[in-house]
Write a structure and sequence with these properties.
50% helix, alpha/beta, binds coproporphyrinogen III, 345 residues, single chain, seven-stranded parallel sheet
Length: 345
């Protein structure tokens, strides 16, 4: 079978005969075959066993006909390697969150090949297994989103400890962010060297900031990450959760593709981002709980709004939810392919 490079061509804003589609968090969560695999091992063990991580990565490619694979891992894996004990319950928990300068000084900037060799090994296995199939996406959390977990100790509603650090002790915050930024640069470069064919930076929590604070406390670190990548033609996707009010700033990050959530029309997002950037999105993940004809209608709506200019990768506006009916996810992928193929005929 010929290698399906629709995704890579769309990232480069080259013409495609059909819009490529994949789904954030497609590896794991909603597939029955994933839950069966998880019976055998806990989540961290799966992440750290290259053969199991590779197997989980391939499930959605085999079962859903998506146009890209994303590595099965988690954004917090390199943070554990910085020296923070990590548990998943299944939500991530750091037992000893960062609360002072001494803890920040103690953090390591790990060498990825030494500290998380299983990630690079999984990538190497996957590149062999995906030969002639679809491209492999590597990823990292953005420094800001990683810092939020490190300071809060897990997920959060109002981010009081994290925002207190930012607003009360900006120098300490900067010291923490510098260490995370350097870690992320090395981590993504190691993934690219191992064979990742695109990388996505997940800034899931960037949208908790005012636009001015986003520009001061978040964006410069992602920009530094992107500048630090030995890209060699590997496209960079920058996704900011709840980021639609920030697109005018995000467009200057240096990424090739901007991921957008569903809180803005994709036509308006493209107007703000301009002709030099590709877009990825932006189906509301909860609309996968609608009847299939309604899913198909919404797919057509997004494809129509995305317009005829090249550079659209169809995706959800955030991760697919664990309870999503598999048939509905499959219907979404088929609808994207069928309708966009007709439009381009
Ligand atoms: O896209 C993919 O499918 C690749 C694998 C992947 C996982 N996590 C696997 C996972 C990716 C890209 C991530 C990124 C991630 N992890 C983000 C950013 C993406 C986003 O959704 O905004 C965040 C915020 C995390 C942190 C995290 N990890 C949380 C909040 C949780 C709790 C449970 C959940 O699924 O939301 C996890 C655990 C996790 N990461 C699971 C998987 C498959 C579930 C673990 C299990 O099987 O029990």
């Amino acid at each position: 079978m010929a290698f399906n490079d629709l995704f890579l061509r769309a990232c480069r804003r080259e013409p495609v005969e059909m819009t490529p589609v994949w789904m954030m968090r497609q590896a794991g969560r909603f597939l029955k075959t994933y839950r069966d695999l998880r019976e055998k091992a806990d989540f961290l063990t799966m992440c750290k066993t290259p053969e199991l991580a590779a197997e989980a990565t391939l499930l959605p490619v085999n079962e859903l006909n998506v146009d890209a694979a994303i590595l099965f891992s988690d954004i917090l894996i390199p943070v554990e390697a910085m020296g923070m004990a990590l548990d998943f319950t299944p939500a991530p928990v750091f037992a000893e969150p960062i609360r002072n300068g001494k803890q920040i000084e103690a953090l390591r900037i790990p060498d990825p090949e030494e500290s998380v060799p299983f990630v690079m090994e999984a990538i190497r296995i996957l590149r062999r297994e995906l030969t002639g199939r679809v491209p492999l996406i590597g990823f990292s959390g953005a420094p800001f989103t990683l810092a939020s977990y490190m300071v809060e100790g897990g997920g959060s509603k109002n981010y009081i400890p994290f925002k207190s650090l930012i607003y009360q002790e900006p120098e300490l915050y900067a010291r923490l962010m510098d260490k995370i930024t350097e870690t992320v640069i090395r981590y993504l470069n190691a993934q690219i060297a191992a064979g990742a064919q695109a990388v996505q930076i997940f800034d899931t929590w960037g949208g908790i900031l005012t636009p001015e604070d986003f520009e001061t406390y978040d964006l410069p670190y992602t920009v530094k990450v992107i500048r630090g990548l030995k890209r060699k033609g590997v496209p960079v996707i920058h996704y900011v959760g709840t980021g639609s009010a920030l697109l005018g700033r995000i467009k200057n990050s240096g990424a090739d593709v901007i991921g957008i959530d569903w809180r803005i029309g994709i036509d308006e997002a493209r107007r703000i981002l301009g002709p030099d950037l590709a877009v990825q999105g932006n189906f509301d993940p909860t609309a996968l709980f609608a009847p299939i004809p309604e899913i198909q209608r919404r797919v057509r709506e997004i494809l129509d709004k995305a317009g005829d200019a090249p550079g659209h990768i169809f995706n959800l506006g955030h991760g697919i939810l664990p309870a999503t009916p598999e048939a509905h996810a499959r219907a979404l992928v088929d609808a994207v392919h069928n309708y966009s193929r007709k439009k381009n005929a």
